[in-house]
Here is the input.
Amino acid sequence: MLSIIIPALNEEKYLPLLLESIKKQSFRDYEIILADAGSADKTVEVARKYGCIITPGGLPSKGRNEGAKIAKGDLLLFLDSDVILSQADSLERAIQNFYEEKFGGATFPFLFTGGTIYRFFSRFYNFWVVFTKKFFPHALGAFILVKKDIHQKINGFDENVIFCEDVHYVGKVKKITKYGLLKIQPVLISNRRFEQEGKIKSCIKYILAELYMVFLGPVKTDIFKYRFGHYKDKDAPKN
Here is the structure.
C-alpha cells in the first residue's frame, strides 16, 4: 500500500485540485493522510469529503512525521497541498520506476504553473537534482517518495530544521539507500510562493540557503523567515 501524506494549513482552495487528481489515478492501492496544522477554513471538511484520514500536524516536518506514524503503507509519498498529479498514471509510473531503479527514496520531476520564467526555474531545478544527487541530494518537500522503513531508520524529518528541511531529509536518505529522480512526466506545483514573495527575492533566498547548508549545515534558525500557510486569497487557483 502507498500512504500519501499531506501537511496542510488553510488549503481549502488548492487541496480539492490535488485530491481530485489523486482520485483520477489508475493506481488505487493507497490511503491519504492529511496532517492539519489547525486550519481555520474548510481544509479538514474538504479532506473528509475525499475520505482522507485526519491527524494533527504543525509545520511541514512535523505534519509529515505525524502522518508517517499512522501510515499503513510500506511506501510513503509526501505531497504538498498545491501539487497536481498531471497524468492519470502518475502514481503507477512513479512506483514502477521506483522499484525498477531499486530506489529507497526518490523525488519527482515537476513544472511550476505559470509562464516561461517558471518553466525555466522548474527545468533548472530538475537538472540540479540530477547533477547533485551523488554529493548534495535535493528534493522539493512537495513530492518525496520513500520506503517507510527508510523513513523510520533516519528518524523522519528533523523538526528542528526550519527551512529546506526536505533537502536535509533526502540527504539522510541518500546516506543509507539509493536516491534519485523518477523518470516520469512532471507533476505540477503552484508558483504562489514566488508570486507572493517576489521572483528575484525568492531566488536569492534559495541560493543563500544552499550556501548556508553547504558551509553551516541544516537551517535551524529563522534567518530566512519561512512562513507556512501565509498565502492570500489572490494566490488561490481560479475555478
